[in-house]
Every structure is written in structure tokens, then in C-alpha cells.
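Example record

One chain of 81 residues, shown exactly as stored in the release files.
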Amino acid sequence: METLAAHVAGFSAYLETERGLSSNTVNSYRFDMEQFMMVALQRGARTAEELQESHVLAWIAYLEEQGNSASSITRKITSIR
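Predicted C-alpha cells for this chain:
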């Protein structure tokens, strides 16, 4: 089982090499995924298999606490989908 960090790195590489997305777009996706990963790690998830709906809900609550708009949160959710 790969760590969450390995999944983030692998997906970032895929976006850049296979999908040909700009570095700015890849960095935005990576930032969102790393932000989600931080919340998930704080709640005990170490691998993708350990992720639960509660991790996503906790991240959304964190984003709301940080003052993110509903449209920004929706965009960020797309990053981890």
C-alpha cells in the first residue's frame, strides 16, 4: 500500500506528463491534495485505502473555517476526486 504522499506525487506526475497540464495547474492540484492529505493524516489515514468520508468532511470544515468560498471549496474537492 502506497502512502498518501506517494499518491499525490504520482498523480501530479501524471497530470504533468500524461495530461500535459501547465505547471501552474499542476501546482494548484498538488496544493489542494496536500492540504487534504494534511487533514487526513491528522485524523489517522496513512494510505488511500484508509480514507473515509469523515476525512473529506473534516477537510471541508477546515476550508470553511479558513474562509474559503463555496465555489473555491467545490473546485478543491474536484482536485481530490
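Notes: The chain has four helices and no strands.
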